[in-house]
Amino acid sequence: MTTHQITLGAINLEAQDPSMLAGFWADITGAMPSPGGNSVYLPPVGPGGFAMFFHPVTAPRPEHQASHLDLTVPWGSRQVEVERLIGLGAVYRWDVLDEYPHVQWTTLADPEGNLFCIAEHPPVDQQGA
């Protein structure tokens, strides 16, 4: 039997200003931006990290964002992290706190309007309590 091991190489985002947007995400992740031409690469930070690649917009942005990042933080730290990210330039969009017993999240937008969520999962013994 063949085993497949697929890992995330990088998240690619088009940006009006790749350097600015990479700087915003570098502040969030702690990565050191690596510019090349008119694009910027952010390497993963640590073994559980993820890479990001920012390049110039090549077409108009669609009306509906079909995908977004879900970033997870330890239980009890979501609100502090959301406040930190808003301080870095993220824009608050909405909270989902009571709909699901296994997760709470806040949806934010980066400086160019790309949505992303900060989620926290309660310990199993607190789910549904």
From TrEMBL:
Domain Glyoxalase-like, first and last residues per copy? 11-118
Organism per entry:
Cryobacterium frigoriphilum
What is this protein's name? VOC family protein
Chain segments annotated as coiled-coil in the UniProt record: none
Return the InterPro entries for the record. Answer: Glyas_Bleomycin-R_OHBP_Dase (IPR029068), Glyoxalase_6 (IPR041581)
Q: Name one Pfam family in it.
A: Glyoxalase_6
